[in-house]
Predict the 3D structure of the following.
Amino acid sequence: AIDKDEIEALPAVERAVREQAACGLWHGAAIHTIRVTTPRGELYGRDDLIALATARCQGPGGVHYADPWLCGAGPHAVWSARLTTRTGDSIGLEAGLARVAAGRVVELWSFPTEPAAPPLGPNLGDPSPAETLHAGVSPAEGPAAAAYAFQGSAGAPGFRPALLTPPPPLGFDPALGQLPPDPAAELPPTLPAPIRAVLARWLTLVAGRRFDLADELYAPDAVLESPMAAGGSVTGIPAITRTWLALADSLPDLRLTLLEVVAPGAGTEAGGSTDDSPADDSPADDGSPATIALLWHLTGTRRSADGRPHRLALPVLSLFRITGTRITAERLHLAV
């Protein structure tokens, strides 16, 4: 099981990479055959990971890795941070989820900073790189060709489509007479009861479109940070509810597949074997917040301005600050 030092060490690597372009630190932190999954596709091998990190560091001015959130349990460490310019202007959120064995990363889910998203709605303009990829269009030919300039190291093919074959997703189609799923059945049974109840309610809100649950799920002054939120973040239950409504309107067939739960008492994966190792942000009796992470897979269809359907298939990372039975802060790493 991962320990507190390892949880803190990995975001320290990311911070040094982003702030100081110290990309070579991944040599000691990752195995040679590491698999890296991003919203754009997959990379294989430590050399390609370092090349990708180097490409992200190129650009004018430096960045500051601010307000990091950390959590970990079992073999997983998760981090999220807000990137700002040296003058304090916000750039966006970055996050990672790593599976660690013998002190080194064997698998990494990377969520880099995304540009500000257009207003959510049924017609969202040109497809994103991930949509182009999953629609079967060659990235070199699609409107997102520039995002695929990185080709990997030593002639490697660079990004490859993420060929995920997840279990049946949460979500339902009332037109087919389907009933809403039971999200609690997808969560590890050893989760502490309060955390399990909050996550089950959140899954019901998103996958079951039960937006009326927001009043009992979020604290009155809760904050949601995400590229899809207006200005990068929104505060308060009404604004958070409107954000989820906009996503549901844009993706009427949205489906959610739970991949990993990183929380005290969670197993190695959703519904998998359990491990009771403590997280660095485990729930406390003094009412301090717990930091919990969910890795999930989103599928859905949206239409571009010309009416063409584009299929989304993306990994998503959600982090929560939970106090008692309510979410007080949430970070949604979603490349909309």
